[in-house]
């Protein structure tokens, strides 16, 4: 008896590595999400499912190792356990993922920011942008739930803070709960900067911070209508400053 072929040996090593990387990472994320202030996850991975998969992987490894040490022939069924487990686990994941959005937390947060900006822009007039919390709160309520976890639990709804007399967007909001839209109105009332408290796009776990990308906050801008737009009945324009992102967002460079 000469043991498994190189191809079989390599296949088992690859399958074991894939199982450890995928489901070990999921288990680590699930445990870390329970203690992190904010997690960029829409729902925590199932600790039960990942633990079962990893436990079965351990059994498969033990059977494979026993067959290898005893130099079982190529047709030994224990050499097939890890590949079969990987295929079945990925199939179950695929079934469970059906109907879920392919976007991750930063993308979904950016979409919510754009939606709010678009609806607020429709309510702007020539004189001013909307600035009353009572007028803006229904727009926030329509956004649904933020794509973040707080101490392992889903944040139930977006919140709103309206600030006045602002000279620019809010860059830092310590102590603010994730999912809070900060609507900052300029002194003349003709412009408002909107930022969202969550996590930087590059961070998955941490303290609440303004949504940013590569160190720059993602800012949506609401502006007062131009007189000629209102007279002609044209749709509201979106005048963006500096580095255009999309959908009414601009990135403001750090001073």
From TrEMBL:
Parts of the chain that traverse the membrane: 48-69, 81-97
Segments of this protein annotated with the region Disordered: 227-255
Keywords assigned by UniProt, alphabetized: Membrane, Transmembrane, Transmembrane helix
Protein's name in the database: Uncharacterized protein
Organism of derivation: Corallococcus interemptor
